[in-house]
Amino acid sequence: MFVRARSSALVSRAGLKGGSVFPPRTPRFSLSARTLSTTSPRSQTHASLVEFGQRHVTKGIGRQVEAIIEKGEGSYLTLGDGRKMLDFTCGIAVTNLGHCHPKVSAAAAEQCMKLVHGQCSIGFHGPYLELIQRLLPMMPHPSLDSFYFWNSGSEAIEGAIKMARSVSGRQNIITLQGAYHGRTYGALALTKSKTVYAEGFHPLMPGVFTAPFPYWHHFSLPPTTPASELTSLCLNQLELLLQQQSAPKDTAAIILEPVIGEGGYVPAPPEYLKGLREICDREGILLIVDEVQSGFLRTGKNFAIEYSGVRPDIMTVAKGLANGFPLSGIITRREISDGLRPGSMGGTYAGNAVACAAAVATADAFKNENILENVNARSKELFGYLEPLRSNPAILDIRGLGLMVAVEFASPTRTSVHDPLRNPHAPAKLASRVAKRCQEKGMFLLTTSAYEVVRFMPALNVSKEDLKKGCDIFVEAVDEIVREG
Ligand SMILES: Cc1ncc(COP(=O)(O)O)c(C=O)c1O
What we know:
aminotransferase, PyrdxlP-dep_Trfase, alpha/beta, Aspartate Aminotransferase, domain 2, binds pyridoxal-5'-phosphate, Pyridoxal phosphate-dependent transferase, 7-stranded mixed sheet, 17 strands
């Protein structure tokens, strides 16, 4: 019914336009309209629903699997075709406590019956304030004491840019090569991991400059390059950028991920982060630390920036904050947020009460269920399973922190014929082929970056057995694909 009604509405609207641009046409469903109108989605076959989705969901979204995700429980997803998949993606580092954590889901359900929408420009609501109480002791620096919750990571980035520009009175933002900060226009302008995100969408927000991130690839150096060398190369390039392209007096902020996510799962060396802090302090530039993917215990600390002891001026969070409920945060010190005019921040759904209640339960579970201990124990095991692969010439690097871990493969083509790290003997497209083979063997694993990289981000409470199972699948898949050549 729904499908037919919407289609005929579209057709009649098209008719009103005179039919020249959108001529009235009979909807072309491969399923009969009768099937769709008389059966609930649940009674339709899995294949027919997938086909329906392929036809009507925008082509702008890429998918790993042409299937319907029916159920999530802990580290597993059940698909509509009956497959039960080990999920080492966590919905891109979101369901850190596993799918449908009972306490998080229960807290959300309870909040649903009390208050769903407590609009932030009308008044406070309880879960919003409770969440701040839970987060304050988790902050990487006690100065971070002013919170604003939004829905997505991209929105948090937009808010952070606005805050930095307005408070500093400067316009330019320096981002880093390989960064991913989102797909909305401001966030997209700061995203430098792959051109696919911006191709065809220019012009983006102006006033953005790019400095290199300390990833050996960016300098065509080998993976064994010492962090100290990468640090001095990158800090020197940044100093040059401030002299040649964006004067400090025009530069509002430098934004970075302490572990670049979509750029290859590369942790920034602590000495580099300290160098950034020094430059920011010297020049009055704000340091925005994007912990959207690396935050909330993912790297073995509450926040990845803690490895360096560096103080962020503004920190953005999302993903693991509410274990799957849409919620993000922009956190700063009151001295900065006190400069904002009331009304300059806000959003209809910002800091939704159900999402905040879920986030409170998530923060409680982090503490009560010894999640940090599990991350660090499982991380050691994960590196233990992967380390023997280093002797395989198809493997270029194994790196990461906590349960944010990557394996980089050799490549015959990347990044270009000029790349000295190109290995003409390596099989092509190893990352995506291995990820696909893992999928065939019952595990979701994601690739990342412009390079041949797969990333491991299992649930932070993944069991010893499931971690081993996932690693066994991966090692087997690598072995098969490399042998196939
Ligand atoms: C570091 C980082 N920042 C920002 C974002 C954007 O978040 P969202 O997809 O919720 O808009 C992402 C998403 O992957 C991210 O990894």
